[in-house]
Amino acid sequence: MSSHKKRRIEGIDATKPMSAIAALAARRREAAASSTSEQQSSECNEQQPTSNVNYFSPLQKGNSQVGTPSTPKKSAVKTPRSQRVTESPAPHPKSHEKARKMWNEPPEGDSAKSNKEATFQIVQTPEDAPKKCIIQELDSLAAWNRKLSSLVTNSREKPSLSTLICGPKSAGKSTFSRLFLNRLLTDRSDRQTLRGVVVMDLDPGQPEYAPAGTLSLVFATKPNLGTPFTHPGIKDAASNVVRCHSMASVTPASDPDLYLACAVDLFDTYNKSFAGVPLIINTPGWILGTGLDLLCALVRMMKPEEVLYMSEDGPSETVDALHAATGTTFTELPSQQSEFTSRTAAHLRAMQTMSYFHLQELALTTTKQTDIIQRLKWNPSPLSFRPPLLVRYSSKKGIFGLVSYDYQCPPELLADTVNGLVLAAVEIEDVKAFSGFTQGQVSADTSLKLTNLDAASKDEVLQIVSTSPEGIPFIPNYNDAALDPRYSRTIGLVLLRGIDTKSHTLQLTTPIPAEEFKHIKSQGRDIVLLHGKFDTPSWAYSEDLYERAGADEGNDTILEVTDEDTDDDRSEAEPEDVDRVSDLTEVPWVEVLKGSQRRPVGSRVWRVRRDLGRNNA
Questions:
Q1: Within 13 Å of residue 458, how many CA atoms lie on the same side as its CB?
Q2: 507 has which bridge partners?
Q3: Is omega for the bond preceding 315 within 30 degrees of 0, making it cis?
Q4: How does DSSP assign 163-230, residue by residue?
Q5: CA nearest 234: which of 357, 118, 330?
Q6: Where is this region: Disordered (predicted)?
Q7: Other CB atoms within 10 A of residue 202 CB
Q8: Are residues 11 and 500 in contact, defined by beta-carbon separation less than 8 angstroms?
Q9: Count of alpha carbons within 13 Å of 275, Cβ hemisphere only?
């Protein structure tokens, strides 16, 4: 367990925060709540959960009304902070550290005039960019252009052209995929324009349309003119995620078998639902060892008409293996290395995840042709401003349980382990999805029935479910099994911001509409929360600190947040008392240091090297 989780938050004492976001809301409530709001808060707190609670209900704001679902005491408080969700954001809200130097931010001590200036501008050349901003022109190589023209011509003759793009990291795979997609969607030949292109995104570390840690099948109808964090929504009309699976990890190395199983299911979905539509398959940059075995397996299974390798520099063993696995056209293209790398893959994933969780709703816009188009809309306020979605975990009408991939923590540590982390919400379409969890966990008779799940009932599957001391249901996974992707699908990600043990509810922050959860339950299907090795959402813990840093009067310092996995953990000294923004030292999972202080030695998370079987005979 990470050392930065220093205390357990059970939601028992109403005066103490349950999670990072709840802690920030509580401190703001104590400092800014008026006497009127305090009276309203006490009235909300006196209400007890009733039998008509909606098991997937958003936290209500304002005074209690007849028919309004009851909510946990700590979450039902009406605060001036939560009211700010509906207010118009400031013209120049303070940018998060991960988005710094991306927008035209006002200078220090900005005036009212400069505060009204646009945060963006049209850039014709790199010289037009703001100072200290690194921009590299998109340059499509001559070899790329020739291949793109050839592919577009082939797609006219064969509309169901399938193309697999692979190669080393940072070779231009995503860039070429975007160019190819846009060329297909904008091809003005004599035939009718394509109604869309299917993109199979098999890179969980840097996905194009879905959240990080997932594999997805996307039906794109509009050209892709933005970076991944500009279109992270699963329900975007321009790039609809048809089916999605979560590996609960950003690398296929966590479970190669699950990776292939998810890819097979996505390919089957494409064959069943999108016959005659072009297919673009994007793969990760893992081209050696087990990664090469996975690529060759994908090529042999999907049999694409075109396999493009985005490098002319080998390695030769990779090129030879892929060429041998390809039964059709195999092409090597020159890579396009970026001259400037201002953000790492982890930073880009964090920005994409941040963008995903700040999605508010689909905004409707009308074009000149009176066509109504749905566009993504974001809420720029910190997540602590947003009421959570309350989910009962003590009822069959709530979640089915928690499933952990890879490391299995003891039941008494489950609440501490998952609290404050990103989880995947998975819809169980059939009880056969649990077939891998039964061996060695139940009696022989029950295991035999569950192995042949055609005859098994849901009540028999419930025999494998255990509970933590807090009553949270979970499915033991000591055999390192995974949900069968043929009978389950990921509907999105959630951030577990708190656990209320009194009302037996989980407090979730997610862009998934509550209506989608309710619809799944109304169809008699279950929802599982999947825990694994998603990136720690440190950006969510520090959002409120950035908000307050910008609001502190006379504050002219830059707030820097360092993740726990740094090489700067050198100091043996304890943090000193600090003021203003830095006085929020009670925020869970956030440690505030002053000046040149460093975290104590041993504070880093130990990285365990996994044996992937490369040297096995």
A1: 8
A2: 390, 498
A3: yes
A4: EEEE-STTSSHHHHHHHHHHHHHT---SSPPPS-EEEEE--SSS-SSSPTTEEEEEEE-S---S-GGG
A5: 357
A6: 1-115
A7: 24
A8: yes
A9: 2
Q: Which of 20-24, 334-338, 388-392 has the lowest mean pLDDT?
A: 20-24
Residue corresponding to tokens 């825990």: 531
What's the CA gap between 167 and 169, in Å, rounded?
A: 7
The per-residue b/e assignment along 342-361, b for 16 or more CB within 10 angstroms, e otherwise, is: eeeeeebbbbbbbbbbbbee
At 37, is the pLDDT very low, low, confident or very high (cuts 50, 70, 90)?
very low
CATH number of 143-345: 3.40.50.300
Place of tokens 């043929």: 486
Tell the residue number behind the tokens 């999972």, with chain if given.
Answer: 589
- Say how many residues make up the chain: 617
Distances (CA, A) of 581 to 1, 18, 28, 584, 612: 27, 20, 12, 6, 45
Read off φ and ψ for residue 201, nearest 5 degrees: -95, 110
Q: CA 45 to CA 601: how far, in whole Å? A: 43
- Over residues 76-103, mean pLDDT: 45
Find the range with the poorest average confidence among 178-182, 280-284, 474-478. Answer: 474-478
Predicted confidence band of residue 609 (pLDDT cuts 50, 70, 90): low
Distance, CA of 485 to CA of 164 (rounded, Å): 22
* Bridge partner residues of 494 (DSSP): 423
Distance CA 211, CA 253 (A): 18
- 271 φ, ψ to 5°? -65, -35
What is the Cα–Cα distance from 166 to 172, expressed in whole angstroms?
A: 10
Name residues whose C-beta falls within 8 Å of residue 470's C-beta, 6 or more positions apart in sequence. 10, 414, 415, 499, 501
Q: What is the predicted pLDDT for the residue at 397?
A: 79
1: pLDDT strictly greater than 70: no
pLDDT digits (tens, 9 = 90+) for 511-530: 998 899 999 999 999 999 99
C-alpha closest to that of 575 among 558, 592, 559, 551: 592
What values do phi and psi take at 404, rounded to 5?
Answer: -110, 130
276-to-40, 61, 155, 197, 271 alpha-carbon distances in Å: 59, 49, 10, 10, 9
Q: Please, which residues have CB within 8 angstroms of residue 339's CB and are 6 or more apart in sequence? A: 136
Alpha helices per DSSP H over 240-344? 256-273, 290-302, 316-325
Measured between alpha carbons, how far is 355 from 229 in angstroms, rounded to an integer?
A: 6
Strands of 56-58's sheet, edge to edge? 56-58, 389-392, 505-509, 488-500, 422-428, 526-531, 401-404, 473-475, 466-467
